[in-house]
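#struct-help
A.M.: can someone run this one for me? Single chain, 148 residues.
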Amino acid sequence: MSKFPARLLSDDIGYVHVCKTFYATQLEALQVFCIKHHQYGPDNIAALGPDGVLSRMRDDKLSRITHTDSDTPGDSIADNHLDASNYMLIRLMLLRKQWPLPTPVEQSANMLTQIVAALDALETFCNTFDLVFEYDAAIEQIKERLGQ
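D.P.: on it. Structure tokens below:
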């Protein structure tokens, strides 16, 4: 992974604002991913493979985005966009042989560790931009959206 460009550390307020907004959107995408993953698990994606993920995105996600003018219960326009971006990350994970995790037992044992590692990385990112990151609040929001 490449390092942050030097420009990120500059005083260019517009650039920093866009990066902060992008980060907030990524957090939304992470929440959508956690909910969808909790609902469907890894097997449906593993069965599709990388090309199947592209097909699913084209036939389902992009169709919803281009043909939906308003939110429907449980299926907002924003969530469809976030879900589409998640599909590309999932495809990358498939290509890197990172999906699914080795076994259901290992998956359960590693899930919290992976979430904590991701949140730690997000906290580091926030510190770079002097953003407030409420670690416990993030965990609670994910649990709340998952209905736990």
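A.M.: thanks! The two ends are 34 Å apart (CA to CA).
D.P.: also worth noting: DSSP finds five helices and no strands in the chain.
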